[in-house]
Specification:
This protein is an all-alpha fold. It is built from eight helices and no strands.
Length: 197
Amino acid sequence: MKISDRVILGFVAGLGGNIAKLAIGTLAQRLNISEIDGPGIAAGMLTPPYKLISPEGKAVGILADSVIAGLLGVGTVYMLSITGKDKAALKGAFSGQVMWQSLYGVMATMGATKVRPFSPKTVLTQFVSHTAYGTVAAAIAVKLGDDKLFTGATPLNASPLISPKRDAARPPSQFSTRKNQIRNNVDNNHAAGSVLR
């Protein structure tokens, strides 16, 4: 059974992509290539740096990183819905790199996280892990997602603000009835005025 809801699919795909990102980050830390991983940076958005190594700080980091990964997965699904699922892994890799640049380049510079500075090796590790995140998230989205999400058969906007079908089935309110009467009177007056000229 395929997932036909973009938000649910995106969150699942994002969490799956996050597993790949966490594996690379953990391995890089164990090999002393990287100073910190994604959850540590995410925890730095919510807690002071000196609390990052505590069990509570690590839990906050894992939760924050997972929520961010899920939300970015939703963005990945929408991107694939707009561009199609062909070459999804490559598109996912690019989107992962854009996320890396946005989150760790722009937002970190603006003070989104209290954890810094990062060594070049840490930054490169984050680049690789985010590329893997995007690739895996896109692959999961295509594998688990209903094909209709990627072909245009399912609209991007599932519930438009104006729906002729829905509005026709709804009985008119006193307000809408009166509004239509006024509109018809104005239209009739304009029509009568143009006939008299």
